[in-house]
Amino acid sequence: MVIESWNEKETYQLGYELGKKANKKDVFCLLGDLGVGKTVFTQGFADGLGIEEPICSPTFTIVQEYYSGRLPFYHLDVYRIADVEEMEEIGYEDYFSGEGVCLIEWANLIEEILPEEITVIKIEKVLEKGFDYRRITVDESL
After folding, report:
1. Residue 82 confidence (pLDDT)
2. Are the CB atoms for 53 and 66 separated by under 8 Å?
3. How far is 112 from 133, CA to CA, in rounded Å?
4. Residue 126 CA neighbour count, 13 Å, CB half
5. What's the burial of 40, exposed, middle or buried (CB within 10 Å: 0-12/13-18/19+)?
6. Beta strands 119-125 and 101-105, pairing class
7. Using CA atoms, how far apart are residues 30 and 104, in angstroms rounded to an integer?
8. Per-residue model confidence as pLDDT tens for the chain (142 residues)
9. How many CA atoms lie within 13 A of 101 on its CB side?
10. Strand pairing of 134-139 and 2-5?
11. What is the pLDDT of residue 58?
12. What is the predicted pLDDT for the residue at 142?
């Protein structure tokens, strides 16, 4: 499925809709270059889960956990992971198989340890269509 987003509000809204539909043990893989709107999407996703806390990217902490919504939300940013073994140190399996929903930014960097069933969201700029335009692809494989 390909969605056209013409502004941040539409990107946020798509995240919100996916968050409302998310179920326990779902794993969402969020891909896209720096500055494409991954954080905006994630904020909408968290809002769809009913999380009221501020959402920021866990680039330096790798994982943020939120428990105020209808399901626990595990937000991982693996951009700084140098080796997949580092994921074992943070107990990634507990997040993938836990009682909540997992959203992983830069998931392509840990492709070999991802569960079989994932939802991939790829956000891309297409400058020919305008500075704020994003093509968002939702698929089930990297």
Report:
1. 83
2. yes
3. 31
4. 13
5. buried
6. unpaired
7. 6
8. 999 999 999 999 999 999 999 999 999 999 999 889 999 999 999 999 999 999 987 777 899 999 999 999 999 999 988 888 889 998 999 999 989 999 999 999 999 999 999 999 999 999 999 999 999 999 986 6
9. 25
10. antiparallel
11. 76
12. 62
Place of tokens 């990634």: 92
Please, which residues bridge with residue 121 across strands? 30, 138
Q: CA-CA distances (angstroms) from residue 10 to 14, 37, 94, 96, 110?
A: 6, 11, 32, 28, 28
Phi/psi for 99 (5° steps) reads -85, 0
Query: CA angle, 63 as apex, 10 and 3 as ends, to 5°?
Result: 20
Q: Is 131 exposed, middle or buried (0-12, 13-18, 19+ CB in 10 A)?
A: exposed
